[in-house]
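Running co-folding for pyridoxal-5'-phosphate.
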Amino acid sequence: MPSGKNQKNPDASPLLSSVNFLKGIPMSRILHRKLGETPPVAVKGDGIYLQDSQGKTYIDASGGAAVSSLGHGHPDVIAAMHAQIDRCAYAHTAFFTTEAAEDLAERLLAHAPAGIGGVCLVAGGAEAMEAALKLARQYFVEAGEHRRTLFIARRQSWHGNTPGALADMPRVSPCYEYRYRVEGQGTEQYTAMLLDELEAAILQAGPERVIGFCAEPVAGAAGGAIPPTPGYFHGVRTLCDKYGILFIADEVMCGMGRTGTMFAIEQDAVAPDLIAVGKGLGAGYQPIGAVLVNGAVLERLQRGDGAFLHRHTYTSHPVAAAAALAVLQVIERDDLLAQVKKRGATLRRMLGDVFGGHPHVGDIRGRGLFMALELVRDRAGREPFAPELKLHAAIRAQAMRRGLMVYPMGGSIDGRRGDHVLLAPPFIVSAAQLSEIVARLEEAVNAAVREIS
Ligand code: PLP
């Protein structure tokens, strides 16, 4: 922890310095969170547990943000990283490839849905999405279709914090049955309505101007583990084919085994043109993301520029690749996809037992070990709590107080209203640990509701 004093320039930041010692706690100089806010200092990770500098232990029931799929301190991943660091910590991708990067690409391809033929390795989820967007644009530029500049995405989706992923683009409704399927409407009818809306958006933009449709197969942070309705992604694929646009699956959060299959979209039996992954790919051991690319897209690049015109300094980083390769090998060796399905079913049952009749839990949803609760003020009317009450923040604080990390968010319904709690425990979690997670979560939810009421 920094002392808070800048040796060269002690007066550099009077505001920070004054906040810094108000409570006698050294304040973080790291600027991506509220000034003056210093979270606990993590000093140790072991399995599903993290420990802070005060000796308090937390169950990591969200894998951070659906990242730590193997838990913390996994010896095989750490050994693979050490071995790679000893051999070669870095070799710029413009000059060299490495065995780790090549092997990782092969292993990813072995698991990928039909048609995927190439992999681009980057340093995180948003980088993967940016690379996917650029690659999709290049795909059309290679064919002289320069007018194609638009991506259509869905509301209640999150694709990253970078300008491309945040760009103001046409949006359609999420596939969010609990909130938006109206009474009397069947699931099939609801799905058809969403697909009609997507088609209308493509036509309104002008199909000749659209590059692709981006969607999370199971919507993660913004909506709370919202699975699609049956046939939804099949319909999306059909529309993309009809209008010659690309389907880009953002599996940064839901991919890499989190839902019980390596890629979440497998369960919808649909093959995207591009798939972005991150988070669980490196499982937190290294920052890494990847874009998986369909063979037809690659072929056009091959006939055109002959390369995807994109690179970062840390593209194909050898230690990141070695970590991700080890993560994949552990998932395969320990049959962890089967484990995710089994423990996922257990978690769903436990959540149902505890929250199925809870007056403030309206929906329990998700796939595999990617589950969420949606909180409501009134169960029958599905009325959310007022956004100003920030129920999600209260749940997070109450859970942390009880040594439980979960991932609550607000704005699930429309970006402003609605609260949900996302659970994404490590794949190695035991049934007894799941039971402890659900018990602590029940206490935290009840305490948070009391606190804001
Ligand atoms: N896509 C999805 C679906 C995500 O959930 C996230 C992060 O939460 C991203 C992209 C961006 O990933 P990163 O935060 O690693 O840049």
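Result summary
The CA atoms of residues 16 and 353 lie 47 Å apart.
The radius of gyration is 22 Å.
Job closed.
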